[in-house]
Amino acid sequence: MSQHQGDEMDYAADDYEMAEVDDDMYFRGRVMGDSESDDDDEYDHLDNKIPDTSAADARKGKDIQGIPWERLSISREKYRLTRLEQYKNYENIPHSGEGSEKECKVTKKGGAYYEFWRNTRSVKSTILHFQLRNLVWSTSKHDVYLMSHFSIIHWSSLSCKKTEVLNVSGHVAPCEKHPGSLLEGFTQTQVSTLAVRDRLLIAGGFQGELICKYLDRPGVCFCSRTTYDDNAITNAVEIYDSPSGATHFMASNNDCGVRDFDMERFHLSKHFSFPWPVNHTSLSPDGKLLVIVGDNPDGILVDSQTGKTIRPLCGHLDFSFASAWHPDGNIFATGNQDKTCRIWDARNLSKSVAVLKGNLGAIRSIRFTSDGRFMAMAEPADFVHVYDAKNGYEKEQEIDFFGEISGVSFSPDTESLFIGVWDRTYGSLLQYNRCRNYLYLDSLL
Fold this sequence. Notes:
Residues 27-61 are annotated as: Disordered. It holds the Pfam family WD40. By secondary structure, the chain is mostly beta strands. Helices cover 8% and strands 41% of the residues. The protein is built from 5 helices and 31 strands. The strands form 7 sheets. Strands 1, 2, 3, 26, 27, 28, 29, 30 and 31 form a 9-stranded mixed sheet that branches. Strands 4-5-6-7 form a 4-stranded antiparallel sheet, with no helix packed on it. It is globular, with a radius of gyration of 21 Å. It starts with 6 loop residues before the first helix and ends in an 11-residue tail after the last strand.
């Protein structure tokens, strides 16, 4: 991924701001890293408090984000077309998006797998690096964790309350003593990536910081700096259980390294190096294989114990930032700045099984449901695509809104889908619930 946020961030600021279509258009997208107060953001351009939107409101015709299209000089449909025409995909390799189109699978739209449930305005999801979008994690159908400026927030959709779990704007240091832990801690950590699973939370930072916290314990339990290299951004973190039952996490770093930490012993257990910065890593369900993607068009499948390459993954045309395994352990997916998600079968890697195309830009985040029924892929902004993985990715549900996407997450029981939306005026947390056909109830009518 891009090491510095100079020219790249200028590019992002220009392209990722909500386009100012008319003089009185309400959109005023925030430049990456701006930290205006939440209080200001909760009001629209007419200084009206923007309420949450419920499923009942949406059924009555209210816009799910609360955007008052009827009072604006442009319709939603026209603005959508303008966004599709004007949004510029960030590419490290020029014209990669156009080059990938000929291979893309034609999918049928109109799937109805998850239905809108609530848009929560009081939860402000934010992004610090425009290429890293793994900042939203669900631990149950009612519980979600996300970054909001310098705070990691817990949101309960059951009680509709938010709680600050960790604030990294000041000094953060471990309150437990473990060998290898950086006891002096960190100050003003810029969180680039996040992972939450069960009761463990890991935050990765721009300077290689790793902050570990158990949600059922006070304070921080472990701090580490993966590297003191200048090129030290922690790009992704994955938490998993080893075959022995011990909790581990794997950190992908811009210094070309992948590091495995044992959280039972609180120490570094493996360190693999690759020829290019690693943007994302995914471990197969059986723990034997690793998908490695980064600043190279080709990804690689490697042995998780030795780090040795088993096979290159050839087909993408730009740098990749997302990967995920299907729970069957055979299928996995990779997301790229060439605007595509490729589906692979580990039993035959000569070519990808399918190539799925985005609308606006890079595929920055991919998630499978725990039952393997659906796969979600998120673009940088405006679109999350939910595919019917069980039936060969032939059909999709296209979730359409306006704003940058900070992350997507299915709940472990597959019942909820959370989407973080980052925008100065309409930033929020979207919740969709799985559609269920309870046909047995018809017999009672």
